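Example record

Each entry pairs one chain with its bound ligand, zinc ion.
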Amino acid sequence: MSGVVFLGTGGGRMVVLNQLRRSGGFWLKLDGVNILQDPGPGCLVMVHQQELKPSSLDAIVLSHRHIDHSNDINVMVEAMTHGGFQKRGRLVAPSDCINLDPVVLQYVRPFTEITEIKEGMKIEIGSVKIGFPLRNMHPVETYGAIYEFSSGRLGYIPDTEYFPALSEAYKGVDYLIINVVRMKSDKNIRHLNMNEAAELIDAIRPGKAILTHFGLQVLKASPRLQARIISEKTGVEVIDAHDGLVVDFDEKESLEKWL
Ligand SMILES: [Zn+2]
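Structure tokens for the complex follow.
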């Protein structure tokens, strides 16, 4: 049984600080392994609203240290480890989340096993393999991931400036979650815009692409309409995520069992 629940689909300062969309990242259940990716502000609240159990988490993965991706990391490690009383699970994060102006508090660190992400690294959590194919181009150390599980491969491209190596690294994944913060680029902000996301989807050609992490420009331009435009242009199935969206990767089985 495999799928994803979106605990937030907002990105960028205006959307996150005003909670125009929630910002809790997403929860993966892949062959029974529970992994939380990018617990931004409000993650703990959304986890409970979705009736997920934080103590069932096997790992938490941070793509990078920006607050819209990492704000709830400490409380989620506590929740994963029964308040720190039971050492369990893993935290997988870039080095600068732990070493330089760290977002992971010192007292929380003994509660779980911590692994620093390196470009090209592969790890296993239960039967799920996670690869970190390349470092993104973003102001802080940032890594996307490819999750391999029994029904396919899921790629996640978090915040980054566009660069061509992305399409090679994620080529042919079955599912692609892609953060699209902007409609127009701004070199100082280093995020993908909608045209660049479309170009990547066209080159990567996933079975299904899911747009998320929308900034204000994207919300104003209707994520639903943008997804439809990219679908028509590329022939790839593209959907826009919304808060609480569940996508079933097995399709045949009901996700109700694990929600
Ligand atoms: Zn960022």
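The chain has eight helices and 14 strands.
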